[in-house]
Amino acid sequence: MGANFAPRYYQIEQTLRERIAQLKAHDALPSESELCAEFEVSRMTARAALQGLVTEGLIYRVSGRGTFVAEPPARRRAENLVRFSEEMRRRGRVPSSKLISSEMRKAQPGEGHRLQLPKSADVVAIMRVRLADEVPVALEKAVFPGDLRGLLEVDVTTHSLHESLIDLGRHPRRGYSSIEAEVAGDLDSHLLGITAGAALLIEKRLILDQSDQPIELTETRYVGSRYVLDVAFQVDAPNE
What we know:
- The protein is an alpha+beta fold.
- The protein folds into 2 domains: 8-69, Orthogonal Bundle (Arc Repressor Mutant, subunit A), CATH 1.10.10.10; 74-230, Chorismate lyase (3-Layer(aba) Sandwich), CATH 3.40.1410.
- The chain has 7 helices and 11 strands.
- A hairpin with a 2-residue loop joins strand 6 (122-132) and strand 7 (135-145).
- Helix 1 (8-20) packs across helix 3 and helix 2 (32-39) packs across helix 3.
């Protein structure tokens, strides 16, 4: 058998990956000192092995308690927009929301244009954190035309905004979205419980109603290690 020239921290990391695959979310993993004894390495090497898995979102660490297997990331087909709560329930997870702010304000530059509103129009702006099994998955910032002020009376921690739109006579039908990568800022870090600079998946979408009128402009900032977009595609035939 040939020699293994991979760094020791990497070898330990791969061994832990195999163990994680056999464990359930929130099961405990060996501590740094236990890894040092098992693999006969320094604490620095053991810490490096764990940190790689933390960065990928496979494990999480709780000060004073230990290291644990993380929840698998939530997933969604990119070509479908399923309500977050419904999406999480389909995957056997418990959805919830935490309201950060809900207000009527003047439309910001760009919002009025995309929502096809007159200048200086009012909008309803709602910001909330979306959670799965009490783990923050995304920070959602949604803006609606001001005539939908009834949304301000909705308890968005328990009730779907899209169901509320339907109750107000506006039925979400179709939309457009763009997806890009970004790093977490201070607000993301604070509200999502991640480190500043962590990877985020940003989805910006515009939703139209049954009359093809814009009703929702939303930016959703997903924690990269906690959310996955699945994409189905076709391969174009080469030009002859």
